[in-house]
Amino acid sequence: EFAKSKSLAQQRQYLPIFSVRDELLQVVRENQVVVVVGETGSGKTTQLTQYLHEDGYTVGGIVGCTQPRRVAAMSVAKRVSEEMETELGDKVGYAIRFEDVTGPNTIIKYMTDGVLLRETLKDADLDKYRVIIMDEAHERSLNTDVLFGILKKVVARRRDFKLIVTSATLNAQKFSNFFGSVPIFHIPGRTFPVNIMYSKTPCEDYVEAAVKQAMAIHITSPPGDILIFMTGQEEIEATCYALAERMEHLISSTSKNVPKLSILPIYSQLPADLQAKIFQKAEDGARKCIVATNIAETSLTVDGIFYVIDTGYGKMKVYNPRMGMDALQVFPVSRAAADQRAGRAGRTGPGTCYRLFTESAYQNEMLPNPVPEIQRTNLGNVVLLLKSLKVENLLDFDFMDPPPQENILNSMYQLWVLGALNNVGALTEIGWKMVEFPLDPTLAKMLLMGEKLECINEVLTIVSMLSVPSVFFRPKDRAEESDAAREKFFVPESDHLTLLNVYLQWKNNNYRGDWCNDHFLHVKGLRKAREVRSQLLDILKTLKIPLTTCGLDWEVVRKAICSAYFHNAARLKGVGEYVNCRNGMPCHLHPSSALYGLGYTPDHVVYHELILTTKEYMQCVTAVEPQWLAELGPMFFSVKDSDTSLIEHRKRQKEEKTAMEEEME
Ligand code: ADP
Ligand code: MG
């Protein structure tokens, strides 16, 4: 209602942060670093940047604001550009990996923390920024945690630089202490009580339980929108599908007028235009039911939510020592996160939160706070980056919470295997080049191997295709048709080459959109891949790496692919069943793989990643020759046998059962 009847300017003045605008600006004037705490929706993300602009901080520099999530960076920049009545990308812009929507006029720049981190590589003092706002710092994303250490140095070197750290109530004191007891500014909250309802018994199928609960609310409870927290895209789609089905069933089985329900998914891979829908008012008074990942916990604020349904679960990237890699796994959320979720129901009026878990689970099983990402994920990129910033010993870096030594060593080991670090842990020539690419070390390695093997043109396409969401479109009601379309692109020995093949055919068809539709391909995904490709190509140019091609002789491309994935090499054990060569971990061919069901099961394969669903499935697989693994392996980069300190160390580490492993069990 409110959003419709009031102008944007009026809406701005109604936000809680507006009542403390002048005091806040005063504190910023008097201090170099300030921690700002406020409830979700108080106006931190959209208003702080504008206040700073109004107070003169965009003269001789710009205001930057980091976000842990891409979706938030995009959506908030759009909102602020509307509030400032300027085109997105003009005065207000955003930058996320492979997408820079800023220009020469940009004075307020939203970006992911990863983008700012990479900017510190080019400009250690971040001279173009007068102010940086580290937003959503309580999320403790990996990049934010590294930025903390880096920005602390910038603060010390540049007296004219201001740093604002924003946080939900969580962690504020810790942030203040880290920067030397800087002031904590509280934005007075305006929240309403939320009634918490627990499940009486542990819930077996939370998708089903959530659907039931949402339908019950819709039919029996007063107006107010519903927000459901799920763990990821698949579940969200399943929930939306089930809700739509129940609604349809209800409408056709009763003569009464069933109130309308507008079912809206939101997750990071959802196209931007569909994401924007959650902020719009539903048609003719329908009740909105938003089904979200934890993105709606704090980074996006939707008004009008009166009911929250919380599954109590979320997906987290966790380094799994057994698999030797990060995996997205479903975990119970922390108590702090559950409270945040519940709070979403009390923004507009008193609300209700239905927890699909028991009170005893909340009290006894959930951790009080989430574990910072830096303590649970692979640090490959961080290690590369810090090494290139001349941080020789990572254990000396000023981390707010240092990562476990085991994590650092694992990541260093993986970089050593890829040839990015030498035996004493310093960056090699390849390592230095890898830092230049905004890519995971594996993909950067593949690219550089493409240079060595003179097929970089082909590898570039594969890397670009792997950097975007899957381009294969598989609507539920046309599954067979789309599978058949997909099979036409198969290169039997490789999913990676299949991606290359798709891209080349699209190119041969003049990058046409209708051609994509005919072949069950996402045109947006392919266009994105093309954009990524051209950006990576620019980097190759600045590095003076020539664009070599192997034409259609793709065996050499498979070699380059092989060289990136030593840690993900597997050998055949049974029908469609493989084991990881390094750790014996079982892994299976996915039915969607080009290698599946073609009567062709190679003895050795490498894979891009492992997906844990009902089984451990290899995602994106390529057949390789065992001698390549030997030939291209770590020894290829003239690693001397004599200096094995790192390997020794790693062995010792492995023998001791680490705290992390125990925790995970
Ligand atoms: P905070 O960062 O303190 O959580 P925000 O600045 O994100 O708060 O949000 C302030 C207000 O702006 C919210 O009430 C929200 O409804 C509105 N808002 C934020 N982003 C958008 C958007 N993309 N579209 C519409 N409204 C938005
Ligand atoms: Mg915010």
From TrEMBL:
It catalyses: ATP + H2O = ADP + phosphate + H(+). One of its GO terms (cellular component) is spliceosomal complex. Its EC number is 3.6.4.13. Residues 202-390 form the Helicase C-terminal domain. The lineage of its organism: Eukaryota, Viridiplantae, Streptophyta, Embryophyta, Tracheophyta. This is RNA helicase. The keyword Coiled coil does not apply. The keyword Iron does not apply. It comes from Rhynchospora pubera. Keywords: ATP-binding, Helicase, Hydrolase, mRNA processing, mRNA splicing, Nucleotide-binding, Spliceosome. Residues 25-188 form the Helicase ATP-binding domain. Belongs to the DEAD box helicase family. DEAH subfamily. PRP2 sub-subfamily. Belongs to the DEAD box helicase family. DEAH subfamily. PRP16 sub-subfamily. GO terms for molecular function: ATP binding; hydrolase activity; RNA binding; RNA helicase activity. It is an enzyme of class 3 (hydrolase). It comes from the Eukaryota. GO terms for biological process: mRNA processing; RNA splicing.
